[in-house]
Design a protein that fits this description.
The complex is a heterodimer of chains A (about 170) and B (about 775). By secondary structure, chain A is an alpha+beta fold. Chain A has three helices and nine strands; from the N terminus they run βαββββββααββ. In chain A, strands 1, 2, 3, 4, 5, 6, 7, 8 and 9 form a nine-stranded antiparallel sheet that branches. In chain A, a hairpin with a 2-residue loop joins strand 6 (about 80-90) and strand 7 (about 95-100). The longest helix of chain A is centred in the last third of the chain and has 20 residues, at about 115-135. Chain B folds into three domains: about 95-195 and about 415-610, Rossmann fold (3-Layer(aba) Sandwich); about 195-410, Dimethylsulfoxide Reductase, domain 2; about 645-760, Barwin-like endoglucanases. Chain B has a six-stranded mixed sheet. Chain B has a six-stranded mixed beta barrel with strand order 25-32-29-31-30-33. A five-stranded parallel sheet of chain B has the order 12-9-8-14-15, with helices on both faces. In chain B, a hairpin with a 6-residue loop joins strand 5 (about 125) and strand 6. In chain B, helix 1 (about 25-40) runs parallel beside helix 3, helix 9 (about 195-205) crosses helix 21 and helix 24 crosses helix 26. Classes of the chains: A alpha+beta (about 170), B alpha/beta (about 775). The interface between A and B is large, with 30 and 57 residues. Chain B: It holds the Pfam family Molybdopterin. Chain B: InterPro entries: Asp_de-COase-like_dom_sf, MopB_CT_YdeP, MoPterin_dinucl-bd_dom, Mopterin_OxRdtase, Mopterin_OxRdtse_a_bac, Prok_molybdopt-oxidoreductase, YdeP_MopB.
């Protein structure tokens, strides 16, 4: 088991930084190792990451999410988990800390881990996030719901419009 | 052209020990053998290699979801899917000569298997009043005759329009639009016969009529229940998902009155380990439950979970979820605690210790999924059983999280999509309002007839016209004699079909056979080649494009037949551009996108690889129930009981069967060969009833109306069925299911848990063996 922790200070309000972090499908725009992200459900995302010819796919479940404060996830294959915390250090400044823990490293993970590459990668991707959101100045979207114990609590307790057919299906 | 058998082969039963594993190399061999009997190697190659591929043919065999694009096998189908698709791709043809040779009376004496083996229907046929033969008729005259009958009705409610789940979204949408523009909600469908209980229960408790899990959820679950379901024969591709789940560490509990081979061990023919190895053990635990005992089992488990929480507060139940997202917990809990153990033990046939050991499995598991099928739904208490499964899932927050949820496993490939398209006799006003706004007519609001009520209405002479779009209504329906008599009372019966089946032989005064393109065939209309769309059991909507040359130049697509019939019947009132819809199915999808929420931008999105995944509100934390929360329910029950000298019977499919169509008389996994007229009985019950192995008996069902329903000439086969529980194949035993024996709330026929007695057959072997 190994843990990586990186912190950065971003010159945007905490709400802006958090909102941008909820827009996972946009991550490939600024994170160099992220090829694509699909938001399968509010609590489930499918990631394709890689460098050069290497590719790795995994699915994560967001287990906790509190607006402007906290997102925790785990990969559904049980290999790694992580969390990100947001807190305002000033009205226009936010401290963002990412912690990633590898639970069941395979031999490749161990080998790569020994080089220190994962730590550097997280640091550089966090820097890319900072650069992106500071450059844009405002978030590209927001999801303001909560997640507790893997259960989604939608942003509006009673969605005004049903989004799918809701009659019984025999 | 392969020749069909001209005469029926006599039944010759041999029995071998039931198999302890499913699939493997024999499944591949049987699939190829049957395919090549039906069609050429070239056609079989085209069908098999495009089946369930992105932009290929969606297998009509079942509604199991396909893996994500890029993760599919080159051969993404199962033995039964291969048999089914090549049964449609057959090179055998039925021509007008066939009907000159065989009268309707003659055909009505034939077995389901023989009728199916005659091949594809190739031109429209009519049986006129007083005649005993079908004769050719042009499409123009056939649809004109049909439209005249419809226009001559005193009320639109004198017609019913039945749909089977093979029908595409586009044809289903056109059918319901036509029926409602004509003025009726009489839209019975095969859902009424299979998962109606699931739909009602899930809708009431979770606010969605559909299952909540995806393939990935199954892959990542810790514990999967497979209840009242035989995936080895009916959804073989589910075994791949269960195998993957097991490789990820899941445990599986099978609950069934029969130890089905597919529940025990699976040899995946796509993997070397499945070809030469022992395969994967599927069920870690097998609960040999009595027929109809599932509600009691889950209630017992729920009681144990409540008591475990009492012993260690805060560690067993998901209190946070229960408090924030559910309603009705207290009343449910109070009732569940009061259920007596002796009742649970008696209803399930399981010991308390065994159920406690399952509780321990549950307590060790963070993520639980329950899969079920007809063994759960086709009971008087089918709806309460599904509701109790929901209670079980809610207690530990096993709903709406990754790797958890409710998984009703549907049979027919687009049975779920047809409902999404509005094939339901009780559609809500929101849908009808949307139709009104889009098409400028006021759809009828009074609820129509479901399948059982349609038969009742036909029996009483209130229905004059019956249209079946795909399927084999008289063989899928209960109480075969009553259903057939009811059908014969109609003025006109018509079927849009690919192949001959018994429904064509049970005619109204006039009868029409309207032959149609199969899912495998190229569909060319005025604007070019068309594709259709379907929705699988996991709410993924994707396209299906046929590849084969049509079986006959005279075939029309289902969409074309329905559009022309609508046009001829309605004659411009209301003004609906039926001709445009026939010419371009995209125009139908444009309309669907404006009416069915969730399918916005349908045409653009559905052509993307993998299609459209309809969101499930439960997985977004939204419960569209009356309370706005997930509902715990209190479910009273009475276990089905057979009096002294009687057994509980479940009707089921054989392995070589697809819905009402048997391909052969074999049932390989259960060790039955050469005959379908067998009743599987526990050896101790055979002794207790004073019967002998291989004795010929009549099955007689007992029902409160005092009518004797008899299925004659079955051989008794000893089988490891739960005590007091017997099994026999449908549709041969549908004759035993009383029309009025239906599930509470859902009105679904109770094809499981019938009380029967086995009477030694009075006459020589072979009597009454047809159809």
């Amino acid at each position: 088991m190994s843990t990586i922790e990186e912190t950065t200070e971003i010159a945007v309000p905490v709400r802006t930084a958090y909102n941008q972090w909820t827009q996972f499908e946009v991550f490939p725009r600024f994170m160099s190792a992220v090829r694509s992200v699909e938001q399968v459900r509010p609590a489930v995302t499918h990631w394709v990451v890689g460098a050069g010819p290497l590719r790795h796919e995994f699915r994560t479940e967001i287990v906790e999410q509190r607006p402007d404060a906290y997102v925790a996830w785990r990969s559904l294959d049980g290999r790694h988990r992580g969390e990100v915390t947001f807190h305002a250090t000033a009205p226009e400044r936010t401290s963002v800390t990412v912690r990633i823990r590898t639970e069941r490293p395979g031999p490749v993970n161990l080998l790569v881990g020994a080089t220190g590459l994962p730590g550097r990668l997280v640091r550089s991707e966090l820097a890319h996030f900072k650069e992106y959101i500071e450059g844009q100045g405002e978030e590209s979207g927001a999801w303001r719901g909560r997640i507790r114990g893997g259960h989604v609590q939608p942003p509006h307790p009673h969605p005004p419009k049903r989004r799918v057919p809701h009659w019984p299906v025999g | 052209m392969q020749k069909p058998p001209s005469e029926e082969a006599p039944d010759q039963l041999t029995v071998t020990p039931p198999k302890k594993w499913a699939t493997g190399v024999p499944a591949v061999a049987h699939a190829l053998e049957y395919s090549l009997e039906e069609t050429s190697p070239q056609r079989a190659g085209v069908t098999l290699l495009t089946m369930n591929q992105v932009d290929g043919i969606d297998c009509p065999g079942c509604a199991w979801a396909d893996p994500a694009p890029g993760h599919r096998h080159r051969n993404e189908y199962c033995e039964n899917g291969a048999k089914h698709i090549n049964d449609e791709a057959t090179t055998r043809r039925i021509t007008a000569d066939f009907f000159r040779t065989h009268s309707v009376t003659d055909l009505a004496q034939r077995s389901d298997q023989w009728l199916n083996q005659q091949g594809r229907l190739t031109e429209p046929m009519v049986k006129r009043p007083g005649s005993d033969h079908y004769e050719p008729i042009s499409w123009h005259d056939a649809l004109g005759l049909f439209a005249t009958e419809l226009r001559g009705l005193d009320s639109p409610d004198e017609a019913v329009f039945y749909t089977s789940g093979r029908v595409s979204n586009e044809a289903a949408f056109i059918l319901q639009l036509f029926a409602r523009a004509f003025g009726t909600n009489n839209l019975p469908d095969c859902s009424n016969l299979c998962h109606e209980s699931s739909g009602f229960a899930l809708h009431e408790t979770l606010g969605t009529g559909k299952g909540t899990v995806s393939l990935e959820d199954l892959h990542h679950a810790d514990l999967i229940f497979v209840v009242g379901q035989n995936p080895g024969s009916n959804h073989p591709r589910q075994l791949s998902a269960l195998e993957q789940a097991k490789r990820n560490g899941a445990r599986i509990i099978a609950v069934n009155p029969l130890p089905e081979a597919g529940l025990l061990r699976f040899k995946n023919p796509q993997k070397p380990r499945g070809v030469i190895g022992r395969g994967v053990q599927i069920a870690d635990r097998f609960l040999h439950i009595k027929i109809g005992g599932d509600l009691a089992l889950f209630q017992g488990l729920n009681r144990l979970l409540l008591e475990a929480e009492d012993a260690r507060p805060g560690t067993v139940l998901d209190q946070d979820f229960i408090r924030s997202s559910t309603a009705g917990f207290e009343e449910f809990a109070q009732y569940a605690r009061s259920v007596a153990w002796e009742d649970i033990v008696s209803a399930t046939g399981l010991t308390r210790e065994k159920i406690e050991s399952i509780r321990d499995e549950v307590l060790r598991s963070d993520r639980v999924i329950v899969c079920w099928a007809m063994g759960v739904t086709q009971h008087k208490h089918g709806v309460p059983t599904v509701r109790e499964i929901v209670n079980f899932l809610l207690l530990r927050g096993n709903v709406g999280r990754a790797g958890t949820g409710a998984c009703p496993v549907r049979g027919h490939s687009n049975v779920q999509g047809d409902r999404t398209m509005g094939i339901w006799e009780q559609m809500p006003d929101t849908f009808l309002d949307a139709l009104k706004e889009e098409f400028g007519f006021d759809p009828p609001r009074a609820h129509g007839l479901d399948s059982v009520n349609s038969i009742r209405a036909m029996r009483e002479g209130r229905i004059k016209v019956f249209l079946g779009v795909a399927g084999n209504f008289v063989r899928a329906a209960p109480d075969s004699d009553v259903t057939e008599e009811a059908m014969r009372r109609c003025r006109l019966t018509a079927h849009i079909s690919t192949k001959l089946n018994r429904s064509h032989t049970v005619c109204g005064e006039t009868a029409l056979i309207l032959p149609t393109l199969g899912r495998t065939e190229v569909d060319i209309q005025a604007t070019g080649e068309q594709f259709v769309t379907v929705e699988d059991s996991m709410s993924e909507v994707h396209l299906s494009r046929g590849r084969l040359k049509p079986a006959s130049r005279l075939l029309l697509s289902e969409v074309a037949i329905l559009c022309r019939l609508a046009d001829r019947t309605l004659q411009g009132r209301p003004a609906i551009p039926w001709d445009q819809f026939e010419a371009d199915y995209g125009a139908i999808r444009d309309r669907i996108s404006r009416i069915v929420v969730g399918l916005h931008d349908f045409n653009r999105r559905v052509v993307r690889p993998g299609g459209i995944r309809l969101p499930n509100p439960v997985n977004e934390g939204a419960f569209h129930t009356a309370a706005g929360k997930a509902l715990f329910t209190r479910n009273d029950w009475q276990a089905p009981r057979a009096p002294e000298g009687h057994l509980l019977l479940q009707t089921l499919r054989s392995h070589d069967q697809w819905n009402t169509v048997p391909y052969t008389t074999n049932d390989r996994y259960r060790g039955i060969h050469g005959s379908r007229r067998v009743v599987l009985v526990n050896p101790d019950d055979i002794t207790d009833l004073g019967l002998a192995e291989r004795q010929r008996v009549d099955l007689v069902s007992v029902w409160s109306d005092g009518t004797e329903r008899r299925a004659p000439g079955f051989e008794v086969v000893p089988y490891p069925s739960a005590r007091g529980c017997a099994a026999a194949y449908y549709p041969e035993t549908n004759v035993l299911v009383p029309l009025d024996s239906v599930a509470d709330i859902s009105n679904q026929p109770t094809s499981k848990g019938l009380v029967v007695r086995l009477e030694p057959a009075g006459t020589a072997a072979g009597d009454g063996a047809r159809p």
